[in-house]
Write a structure and sequence with these properties.
This protein has about 90 residues and is mainly alpha-helical. About 60% of the residues lie in helices and about 0% in strands.
Length: about 90
């Protein structure tokens, strides 16, 4: 029997839930900005001390950590800006 020429009806697309990162959110809300910026310092020091065949893997990990640091710095800056805006007086100048 040949396949039918009519396409089968597909189910309507479900709306994806909004992403939620409670661990990162709570870290940023509860931790001072300086501590967030220094979060990866011990890991970076450990990676810098690698020798032998693990050096290549360490370089890849350092690149990933650098990107994560950039993203965390952006989140910290955004948090600080939002807090400053919330404290600013509202109304006409």
């Amino acid at each position: 029997m040949p396949p039918s020429a009519k396409p089968s009806p597909s189910a309507p697309a479900q709306e994806l839930p909004a992403p939620s990162y409670p661990a990162v959110e709570s870290l940023l809300e509860a931790t001072p900005a300086d501590e967030v910026r220094a979060l990866f310092a011990p890991v970076k020091e450990g990676l810098a001390e690698l020798k032998g065949p693990k050096v290549e893997q360490g370089k890849k990990a350092q690149a990933a950590i650098s990107r994560a640091e950039e993203l965390l710095a952006l989140l910290v800056e955004t948090r600080e800006r939002l807090l400053a805006e919330a404290k600013a007086p509202k109304g006409r100048k």
